[in-house]
């Protein structure tokens, strides 16, 4: 692989998003379609695990924030952990 491939985006390549050394774990819950036609979809809820800058822990619960390459997420608390609910891209 070449270290530099030009200015064009290469489709279907993995993207990396960096955070600071001072970070916290963040779980994002991604809801999907609850029903497929008339059938209940048991796989309608997915979780993404990652990290966010520690400053996110100071954002009030219920606020919606935008995460790069993810989308908009509403911040919630589950016990002592910060959790995000995916809202849209």
Please tell me about this protein's structure.
Helix content is 0%, strand content 47%. It is built from no helices and 7 strands. The relative contact order is 0.23. It is mainly beta and 89 residues long.
Summarize the topology.
Layout: E1 23-31, E2 35-36, E3 39-40, E4 45-53, E5 64-67, E6 71-78, E7 81-88
Parallel strand pairs: 1-7
Antiparallel strand pairs: 1-4, 2-3, 5-6, 6-7
Strand composition percent = over 45%
Mean pLDDT: 87
Helix content: under 10%
Structure class: mainly beta
Note the gap between the termini.
31 Å
Strand order of the largest sheet: 4-1-7-6-5
Number of helices: 0
Shape: flat
What labels describe this entry?
47% strand, flat, mainly beta, five-stranded mixed beta sheet, 89 residues, two-stranded antiparallel sheet
Give a summary of the structure in a few sentences.
This protein has strands spanning 23-31, 35-36, 39-40, 45-53, 64-67, 71-78, 81-88.
């Amino acid at each position: 692989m070449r270290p530099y491939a030009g200015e064009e985006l290469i489709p279907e390549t993995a993207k990396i998003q960096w955070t600071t050394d001072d970070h916290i774990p963040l779980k994002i819950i991604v809801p999907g379609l609850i029903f497929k036609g008339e059938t209940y979809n048991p796989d309608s809820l997915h979780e993404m695990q990652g990290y966010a800058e520690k400053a996110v822990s100071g954002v009030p619960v219920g606020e919606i924030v935008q995460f790069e390459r993810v989308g908009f997420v509403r911040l919630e608390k589950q016990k002592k952990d910060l959790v995000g609910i995916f809202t849209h891209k």
